[in-house]
Amino acid sequence: MLPLSDHNPRRTVPVVNYLLVAVNVLVFFWELSLGTNIERDLMIISFVPVRFWAAPFYPPNLIRILVSMFLHGGWLHLGGNMLYLWIFGDNVEDRLGHFKYVIFYLLCGLVATLSHAVANPDSRLPSIGASGAIAGVLGAYIVLFPKARVTTLIPIFVFITIRELPAVLVLGLWFVLQFFVGVASIGASPDATGGVAVFAHIGGFVAGMVLVVLMGGLRRTPQTYNQY
Fold it and tell me: Of 110, 119, 174, whose CA–CA distance to 141 is shortest?
């Protein structure tokens, strides 16, 4: 299933969410400008679990966690992540407020990256992408707006249909898929997940569910949204 949009009004302009999307896109264009040096340079600046555990408190290794959250491995990687962030991030920002949303997003990304590092301590592959932090946004959304309607593209064999489904179903199924892929990959090589850091998704999602509560997301006056 691929979400296309949600039906969930907001009261404020999601300036932080817009900025996050813009920064991710600009950083990706910077990556493209590296040309033939891209693989070498990304290996230097991105997060690598085995390098991190060799010196977990070494400042450059900590900086790499932040930098890696804004790097992407291709157009599809970038496009998929930005689609989810664009659809679901604005309402989470609206509920938390702009400043708290920045802190929330970065903390989710941190937990996601460390979750991947714990699950794959010997991995020498660079871990890049915003999906861990965005998984946190999805976790927060499912807590705050479980009944919000999401327009979703659903492939059924050779047919494609579009339906409005509750967020709890769309995002819940996404998390269940990540969880089972992650469990199945335990003890396997990184290739078992196609290079996808599923434990970053799992860790980020759970972090988002917890952090949005701790940061007062449920204490705000709920918005009106369409019910399913």
Answer: 174
Element (DSSP H or E) covering residue 162: strand 159-166
Q: Which residue has the tokens 């009944």?
A: 147
The whole-number average pLDDT for the span 66-76 is 93
- The pLDDT assigned to 109 comes to 96
In whole angstroms, what separates CA 87 from the centre of its chain? 12
Tokens of 220: 């705000």
Do residues 201 and 43 touch, judged by C-beta distance below 8 A?
Answer: no
Could you tell me the two tokens for 8?
A: 């969930």
Whether pLDDT at 150 is above 90? yes
Q: What's the pLDDT band for 113 if we cut at 50, 70, 90? A: very high
Q: How many angstroms separate the first and last alpha carbons of the chain?
A: 18
State which H helix or E strand residue 7 sits in: strand 2-7
- Report which of 179, 178, 143, 146 is spatially closest to residue 165, judged by C-alpha positions: 146
**pLDDT tens sequence across 7-61:** 999 999 999 999 999 999 999 999 999 988 888 898 999 999 999 999 988 999 9
- Residues pairing with 159 in the sheet: 156
Q: Domain 2-214 adopts which CATH fold?
A: Rhomboid-like fold (1.20.1540)
Q: Where are the domains of the chain?
A: 2-214
Return the structure tokens found at 177.
Answer: 């898929």
